[in-house]
Structures are given as C-alpha cells and as structure tokens.
What does this fold into?
Amino acid sequence: MRPTFLGFETTRKSLMASQKALDITGHNISNVNTTGYSRQRVDLFSMVTTSGGTRYGASKVMCAGQGVYMSGVDQIRDPFLDKKFRELNSDTAEAGIKSSILTDVENVLDNIDTEGLQKALLKFQRTMESFATDSTDREEIANILTQSAKQLVNVINNYDFKLTQIQDQTKFEVDASISDVNATFNKIADLNKQIADSYVSNGEVSYGLAGDYKVNATYGPNELLDTRNVLLDSLSSYGDIEVQDEKDGTVTVKFAGATVIEGNKATQLSCSEDSITGALMLGFNNGSEFSPKAGSLKGYVDVYNGNGCYTQGAQNGSEGLSYFKTVIDKFSETMAKEFNKMNEDPANPGVERPLFTTSDGSVVFTAKNLRVSDDWVNKPMSILPTNQEGELDNAHIYRLLSVFDKQVKFGDNNDFEGTFEGNISYFTNKLSQEITFQSGKFESNDSLTTSILSERDAKSAVSLDEEGINMMNYQKWFNASARVMTTLDEALNTIINNMGLVGR
It folds into this structure.
C-alpha cells in the first residue's frame, strides 16, 4: 500500500502551485502598462518518483504521483531579440541625430524660402549691373550697391553665427549625453550588486524517469532584472553595446568594444576638445580614447567633427558642421580676395582698393570677420574711380562684374572650382544629398526597430487575453485540486472510522 498521506501531500502541492500561478497571473495583469515589464510565469515540473529505503521496501510504482514541483518564477524574455533590438536602436539613434543636425544646417543655409546667400549674391550682381548701364543717378545706385554688399556680408556673418550656435548646442548635447551615460553605468553596476545578492541558483535539476530532462534552475529578482534591461535598452541608443550574462546574475557590459561595467564596478566617460582644430574627442577617465561604431554619441561627434576634404587632426572625412563652416569661410575668403584684386586703382595699377576687409584686423578672411570696407561705406561712389585721364572709369564696373562669371578655386584642397553661384549650389546640394541619405537610413532602421520591438513585445509583454485564459485555467485547476483533497478526506474517514465494522 502506498503511504497513507501521499495523496494529501500531492494535492497540497497542486493547491499551492495553482494558487501561485493565479498570484503571478494577477501580478502580470497589474503590470500590463508598466514600462519594461516582462511577463512572468511559474516554472512547473512533475515530481521525480523515488523509492525510499524503508523496511517495507516501497517501490517506485507505489510512490508514483507525487505531484508538481515549483522550480521558481521566471520572466519570459528572448536574449536574441534583446541583442537585435539594441543593435538596431544604436543605428537608428545615430542616423536620427545626423539627420536632425544637418536639417538644422540646411535651415540656416536656406536659399529658397529665405533671403539666403544665393539671393543676396544675385541682388549684389544685379545692382552692379544697373550701376554699369544706368547713368542717370549714379550716386543713388552707388548707395544701393553699397547696401546690397552690406546685406551680402550680413548674410555670411549670420551663417557663421547660426552655425556656431548649432555647434555649441551639439557640444552641449554631447556633454549631456556623456553625463547620462555615466549615470546609467553607475545604475547598472548598482543593480548588478542588488541582483547578485538576491540571485537564486537551484543548480541543475533533473526530471523524468531516467533523469534525462534537466533544467538550469536559476532565478533572480525579476523586477530588478526588468529595470536593468530598460537601462541597457536606453544605453544602446548612445553607442554600440555588448552584454554578457554572468553566473551570479550580473552582466558585463562593453561599450564601443571596451569593458565599462563588470560586477558592481563601472568606468566613466569624458569628452575633450582638440587644442588645434577644436574637434571633440571621446575617452575614458583613465585617458584612453574610444570610438563608438554606432549610436547618438557617434552621430553627434561625426557631425561636429566632419570637415570633409579639409580634415585635420581629430576631425573626420564626413561632411558635417565643420565642413560647412569651412565652406562658408572659403567662400568669404575667395569672394573678398577676388573683388579686392579686381578693384585696383586705375590711376595706380597694382594698388588695391579693398572693397572687403576684416573686422578683427586679420589678414585671413572668414565668414565671421568679413565686412564691407569703411572707405566704400563712407564713399559709395569710390567704386567708380577716375582713370588716368580724370574721367569716371565705367569699364571698372565691368571688370568687377566679370568676377561673377569667373572660374575660381575655393579653398586649397580644391573642393570646388567654378563660379560663386555654382559654389553655393554645390555645397547646398551636397547638404541635401547627405540629409536624404541619413533620413532614409533613419526611416529604414526605425521601421526595423519597431518590427523587432513588436516581436519582442509579442513574446515578453503582457497580453490581457492570454492572461485571462490562464486565470480561468488556473482557477479550474485550483477547484479540481480542492475537490481531490475533499475526496481523499472522505476516503481517509472511511478507512479510520468505518473499516472493520462489517458483520458486527
């Protein structure tokens, strides 16, 4: 005969398991809208049949039916989907940052909807053409020409000012991101410690008649694991990360290929500027540099440092803020030099009469220091000098007009050679193409990220329909177990109180 109370113990385990399953179902439903929550389940296994070495020699058959074993409460999560989501999240964040900043640059260099450089240059040219052909009121036209030159210079100065603002804002965003990343490192390291202190490992538990079904029964504090996963997801937007699960429940995290979190220890990131070029350089507090392969930090740094064909030092070859600032500087320098060179004094060949000067006294023209010369501002008619015969030199204006059609080289690196108008079209088209590329990349990656996120949510997120079905099943399970307990009680009552009474 089997042990008398084996059935009661089996049913007790069933009641406890069904009750715990109902508890976890209620917990899942309660957290249906909790950010980062992964649904939980009770891991259940059939109890292994054993025969104790008793004096009665009980067999496995007599000891069968020992009920259900609750291994622990696990969270439903797919590490592969986590890894895929974080990779795509990094790429999406990088493309989004680049697209956003370059769009801001495009808004500054807008030559369609605003009074941009192209319109200001054309107005300057048209006014000079009027000066050459209209002899009725030269002084008035000279004043208008001077004002159009000042307007052209103001547009260029404003370009530099606004591009510098975008640079400053980008640098601010980098510093803020570094601060957020460091705080996240510390939070994950702290969670590692808490999780390790609460981590439970039941070892390798064997099930089945031959003990051939094994489960690695390790369980951690699921709510802390969820919090850590949310932080890891957030961290992936800043840069490329690798996450390695350790046996004690902690994770080792690599950021841009370097180990930044190990156990409860975390390193810190920093950002500095190149003393020569002003380029941003990312590194660790120990002085070593790092270069993220993806993420928003890479997006910020690439756009900030990107100087195209004018790259120096820590800058890179992409065409970002530095490149377009340099392009505007080269445009300013070339324009000033070409017009100044053509504006020689007819009475003194070889002697320049500067139309454009610098506001800081520098010999190098930039978009920031470019200005209309005081001589021209104070004497607008000076642009039409007298020749050696003392006559107004109208041909001089035609020489100045020829500058607009002249094929000139912009910059030492020969980024572009052509007219001023052609140069403007060249760099604005470059900007438009890069924005189109980065926007397309962002939209594509964002779509893939959304798809992976939906797939992950389908596996890990709480489904009210599914939990409702589980609740009904677990309730039926509990009721059936209670009925078995009642039946066993009735049987035991018969054995104790009624057996042996027949025939009395």
About this structure: The longest strand covers residues 68-75.
